[in-house]
Amino acid sequence: QKEVEQDPGPLSVPEGAIVSLNCTYSNSAFQYFMWYRQYSRKGPELLMYTYSSGNKEDGRFTAQVDKSSKYISLFIRDSQPSDSATYLCAMSARSGTASKLTFGTGTRLQVTL
Amino acid sequence: KAGVTQTPRYLIKTRGQQVTLSCSPISGHRSVSWYQQTPGQGLQFLFEYFSETQRNKGNFPGRFSGRQFSNSRSEMNVSTLELGDSALYLCASSLAGQGTSTDTQYFGPGTRLTVL
Predict the structure, then answer these.
(1) Around A102, how many Cα atoms within 13 Å sit in the side-chain half-sphere?
(2) Residue pair B43/B35 in contact by the 8 Å Cβ criterion
(3) Burial, B102: exposed, middle or buried (Cβ in 10 Å; 0-12, 13-18, 19+)?
(4) Which residues are CB-contacts of A69 (< 8 A; sequence separation ≥ 6)?
(5) Which residue of B has its CA nearest to A93?
(6) Contact B109 A43 (CB under 8 A)
(7) What's the CA gap between A45 and A59, in Å, rounded?
(8) Mean pLDDT score, A45-60
């Protein structure tokens, strides 16, 4: 079983919908949690960063971490066609090894007009 | 500020050959990490270099190796290529690789390697 599980999708939603993307993990040592967005033929770009549990909001994006359930989420409000991409969750254990990110396989999102 | 650059963008090789990929980090970044991305396995960590030293290593065979130069540029090498090595190889740079909110990883566009 993988350390990080993520539904690969594809997930298709109409423009303006609220999107919920999720990951579960098994390693209780993870404490840094990130969401990356990857457009086709591009490298991943960092969207959200959260340390430990809690919520973080940035514009239309909200990241939630529930360490007790080993579950993280990314919500996208008022989704736009430009949000169509693959969303990757990533996490790492402690500062000294923080460069070693463990990724989910990614969820492909399609926002339709 | 220029982003992470990777060369070449595309490569086609045959089984048994070897290949070298190059990564130039963002100016001022001293940590460079390499990842392999495949449809089935997703992004998997290969190794990380900091100040010309390998600091972290993932679970890949010894055919995968890398190095970092004094200007922080990095290369990775894959010897005796196998069909399963076909993947997108991504390089990411960060200031010092600490993973804090002010020291996160920035990815390059990747090198698409096809092994025939």
Answers:
(1) 22
(2) yes
(3) exposed
(4) A24
(5) B99
(6) yes
(7) 16
(8) 91
* DSSP-based three-state secondary structure for B45: strand
pLDDT at A110: 97
Name residue, tokens 């969303």: A87
Give the mutation candidate from B9, B107, B111, B112 for the A interface (greatest A CB count, under 10 A). Answer: B107
The pLDDT tens digits for B42-57 are 999 999 999 999 998 9
Residues of chain B found within 8 Å of residue A95, distances taken between Cβ atoms: 98-100
Helix (H, G, I), strand (E, B) or coil at A96: helix
Q: CB–CB of B42 and A104 under 8 A?
A: yes
B110 vs B35: CA distance, rounded Å: 9
Q: Label residue A93 by pLDDT band (50, 70, 90).
A: confident
Residues B64-101 have pLDDT tens digits of 999 999 999 999 999 999 999 999 999 999 998 877 77
B-chain residues within 8 Å CB-CB of A92? 99
Residue B20 has pLDDT above 70, yes or no: yes
In Å, how far is A44's CA from the nearest CA of chain B?
Answer: 6
Does A1 contact chain B (CB < 8 Å)? no
Distance CA B8, CA B112 (A): 8
Q: Which residues of B21-49 are buried (b: 16+ CB within 10 A; e: fewer)?
A: bebbbbeebbbbbbbbbeeeebbbbbbbb
- The number of residues in chain B equals 116
pLDDT > 70? residue A97: no
